[in-house]
Amino acid sequence: MISGSPADADDVGYRGPTACHAAGISYRQLDYWARTGLVVPSVRDAAGSGSQRLYSFRDIVVLKVVKRLLDAGVSLQNIRKAIDTLRSRGVGDLAGITLISDGTTVYECRSPEEVVDLLQGGQGVFGIAISGAFKEIEGTLSHLPAEAATAADELPTAPASAPAGGFPAGDELAMRRARRRAG
Fold it and tell me: Which end of the chain is more exposed for a tag (fewer CB within 10 A), N or C?
């Protein structure tokens, strides 16, 4: 793994399978959310067949938040609105936000007073402290592989250390495609 805190590393990205593991989602969800623009990888997006998306630490925190909101029954439409608001913030800002939802609307709270104000309405709500997701992702990623961010055109097509299929050992999807093509 590349040294340094994942939250501070701008030149580090995490491949799809690593992002899925850290956020607790399936690769199918990750792919759908990237293709529909819900959570697009900020380090490197896919540039055609066989290219690798690379997700930043912040992207993975947002993936985790989306997963928690979905699990709580918030509609994808309302999640998209909440994520659009979060997109404009850096990782440091995210850590100070608590998302509160009544299952229909998602509210952003930046202080304990704002949380109390929402709760005084007497309505049943749930909250997601993004700082908790932040710490959880940081702990998970400390044990998972990261890679240096390079431009898609700088990526080698078949690294010297690659197995017979010509793809890095950790790229299961590329290996499956190669086996399918081989016959």
Answer: C
What 3-state DSSP class applies to 84?
helix
Helix residue ranges per DSSP H, the chain: 16-23, 27-35, 57-71, 76-87, 91-95, 112-119, 130-141, 172-182
pLDDT digits (tens, 9 = 90+) for 79-125: 888 887 777 665 567 777 888 887 777 888 888 888 888 788 776 67
Residue 109 in tokens: 């709270």
Cα dihedral angle (147, 83, 96, 41), rounded to 10 degrees?
Answer: 10
Diameter of the chain by CA atoms? 64
d(CA 48, CA 43): 16
